[in-house]
Design goal:
Bound molecules: calcium ion
Strand content: 25-35%
CATH class of the largest domain: Alpha Beta
Largest sheet: 8 strands, mixed
Structural class: alpha+beta
Number of helices: 8
CATH architecture of the largest domain: Alpha-Beta Complex
Number of domains: 2
Low-confidence stretches: none
Shape: globular
CATH topology of the largest domain: Fumarylacetoacetate hydrolase, domain 2
Radius of gyration: 20 Å
Length: about 375
């Protein structure tokens, strides 16, 4: 079934032969891969839209009912479209995009690489899920080419910055969480509120230009080294499809403040594969993260910032404790000092990166989240 059986049923946006965009659901069976045209099958207006937003805004009760309805449609013999006949589009009109930094192993590795003479973790790291507001308008669907960004770069041994194409283009293998139900300005979402607001999960590649980032990031954090492109899966996996994937994360010390738990340290047992030009170079495990999705959401809203339908928040690079589990080339080649087999450090023009994700499904097997692909194109200026 290829990970897209009836226990998965992810949502996306498709069109056929240049026609209007519609909301659909993917499933595979012995005959092939299919997309159910939800507007065609149900007539519901929220599915005649060019994003999932109108549907997602209806809230968890409608999401649950719809999931049952879709399963019944498929089992009842609706007429789905062959996947190869549709074009897939960005599934969500992204409202705000926030990127966290929730992997202890990733944050420690980056600290050691960027600040070799200091403590790898900043003093706040174990007290709050660090994040920054990213650029929603450059979130693109899997398959969209990624143009190598240009900008100011300054290596530590250079006296002054220069302008030009990034020489340290990288990926960050992450998981993205898509908000469906909004929250009220001035209120906060409790650490128990994840399933009340989050519609689903998507794969996410936070393309990163390390040389631009290293020069610009102090003191206000990531800016142009990140904002040129962020790729997401064409399919959003509903939270309900991950019911069997929840696991306890490794643990937190010290105990976080009450609004961040305790007891909110459940994460997802999602395996990630990072593939470069057809070869797997890393297998980051999401279950090794330090901060949980519920804690990230609680922290994101603790100041009263409201959620909007279409908000996207990402985990930060997923890296495990082993060298073969690092979710960025920065870590895999240790800042360029330890090239991969074949001499590779950062991305070259023409490189194709594919992120694959799988998790335990509720049916006893595994589900496969929508993959995230992108090919690097030559800088334009
Ligand atoms: Ca990131």
């Amino acid at each position: 079934m290829n990970g897209f059986g009836l226990d998965h049923l992810p949502y996306g946006v498709f069109s056929v032969a240049g026609g209007p965009r519609r909301v659909g659901v993917r499933f595979d069976d012995d005959e092939g891969s299919w997309v159910v045209d939800l507007h065609g099958e149900t007539g519901r207006p929220e599915f005649a839209e060019s994003s999932l937003n109108t549907f997602m805004a209806l809230g968890p009760e409608v999401w649950r009912q719809t999931r049952d309805e879709v399963r019944a449609l498929i089992e009842g013999g609706c007429e789905p479209l062959p996947l190869e006949e549709v074009t897939l589009h960005l599934p969500v009109e992204v409202a705000d995009y926030v990127d966290f930094y929730a992997s202890l192993d990733h944050a420690s590795n980056v600290g050691k690489i960027f600040r070799p003479d200091s403590e790898p973790l900043t003093p706040n790291w174990r007290h709050l899920p660090i994040g920054y507001h990213g650029r929603a308008g450059t979130v693109v669907v899997s398959g969209t080419p990624v143009t190598r960004p240009s900008g100011q770069r300054k290596a530590p041994d250079e006296a002054t910055p220069t302008y030009g194409p990034s020489r340290r283009l990288d990926i960050e293998a992450e998981l993205g969480f898509v908000v469906g139900a909004p929250s009220e300005l001035g209120s906060s979402v409790p650490v128990t509120g994840l399933a009340d607001h989050v519609f689903g999960v998507t794969g996410l590649n936070d393309w990163s230009a390390r040389d631009i980032q290293a020069w610009e990031y102090v003191p206000l954090g990531p800016f142009l080294g990140k904002s040129f492109a962020t790729s997401v899966s064409p399919w959003v996996t509903p939270l309900a499809a991950l019911d069997a994937a929840w696991v306890d994360l490794p643990g937190q010390d010290p105990e976080p403040l009450p609004y961040l738990g305790p007891g909110a340290t459940r994460g997802l047992d999602i395996d990630i594969e990072v593939e470069l030009n057809g070869e797997v170079v890393s297998r980051p495990p999401y279950r090794s993260m330090y901060w949980s999705p519920a804690q990230m959401l609680a922290h994101l809203t603790v100041n009263g910032a409201s959620l909007r339908t279409g908000d996207l928040f990402a985990s930060g690079t997923v890296s495990g404790p082993e060298p073969g589990q690092r979710g960025s080339f920065l870590e895999l080649c240790w800042g360029g000092q330890e090239p991969l087999p074949g001499g590779r450090t950062f991305l070259e023009d023409g490189d194709q990166v594919v992120l694959r994700y799988s998790a335990p499904g509720t049916g006893g097997g595994r589900i496969t989240l929508g993959e995230v692909t992108g090919r690097v194109e030559t800088a334009r200026h």
